[in-house]
Design brief:
The protein is α/β, with parallel strands linked by helices and about 425 residues long. The protein folds into two domains: about 160 residues, Lyase, Ornithine Decarboxylase, Chain A, domain 1, CATH 2.40.37.10; about 240 residues, Alanine racemase (TIM Barrel, Alpha-Beta Barrel), CATH 3.20.20.10. It contains 14 helices and 19 strands. The strands form two sheets. Strands 1, 11, 12, 13, 14, 15, 16, 17, 18 and 19 form a ten-stranded mixed sheet that branches. Strand 11 and strand 12 form a beta hairpin.
Amino acid sequence: MFHGLDMMSLIEEYGVPFKFTYIPQISNNIKRAKRWFEKSIKKNDYKGSYTYCYCTKSSHFSYVMEEAMKNGVHVETSSSFDIDIIFRMIEKGWVTKDHTILCNGYKDERYLDRIAELINMGYSNTIPIIDNEDELAKILERTNKKVSIGIRIASEEEPKFPFYTSRLGIGYRDIVHFFENNVKGNSKVELKLLHFFINTGISDTAYYWNELTKCMNVYCNLRAVCKTLDSLDIGGGFPIKNSLAFEFDYAYIVDEIVAQIQLACNEKKVPHPDIYTEFGSFTVGESGGVVYEVLAQKRQNDREKWNMINSSFITTLPDSWAINKRFIMLPINRWNDTYERVLLGGLTCDSDDYYDSEQHVNAIYLPIFNPNKPLYIGFFNTGAYQESIGGYGGIHHCLIPQPKHLIIDANHKVTVFSEQQQPEQMLSLLGY
């Protein structure tokens, strides 16, 4: 069972492999995060507000965006085509002029054009977050309206990274200088927000708290010379459950973040900023799953047994291949059978198309393979990034087809969003 959904009944009706999205979990996670921040703000007598933005790059699908927007969230974009989605959402009534639209990422000419188009249409809460010093002048060239901007801090990466500083944003030491030279005294622009994010996400580590402290030093120094600055965007990075042993005290972390921001501001006698977050994986990740069947078992030596699935990990769960990400993996049926240690292999002819371990465990144990007793396995909390990184609707490695995708609502009504990819679709894309 997954959130009350009977997996075997879905298998019997729709066949395997299939991906699915359980829509209500998107709203559940948004409400959880809002509740944690609201409680912490009240407990600490924090003077700023909290705004939840959805990071669209985690999943751009319309059914995700529609569900998220029902919860009064705002939007964070990453590229020019994101803004095209915003225009569609405006047509549908999902986005109004009251919504905040944070525009992140490195901005090419088209992205700048589309941001300016939104601002010129009166969407004054569109906030381009300056990623490099050239962007501000390019935006101001495209509009006669006053523009509210943010600035992204180029955070320092963890020691294990092959580089010291993020390629995104402006360096800690350069931000006040940038404001003084480019924003101060310019009636066309107003600095409203400082953006902070580290690649490892929000975690209870000395590294995270140290980076947050450095960010607050920049915020307080910038606020001293810029009275319009009133918001702090702490980015995304809430983890999601990736194993049955996963434990993360979200309420404690939120409370500590709010308290640290408050403490830094009180020490410098700076007003408490409004807090923004850009949760992406946390919003949509736990809504998704994918189900496979074990086709056959290959024994390559005395120790290794390969259970071959009827799809590909590279195609359907690219993060498991590209960054060794682990998901919750469980057999769907035959729980009471005897188990054996196995490796899982995909259908491509690539040696890297495998899945070999659960978090903190060096092997996978599944019911013993029996050609006369079908075995189904599920990977859960796979809803973020996998479709976009895997190239939804496109050409996949070894031409392994994209599986059927099911959308499931709160009443457990199932809609087939897309059927399994057919040979004709691929041949057309390839020019045949």
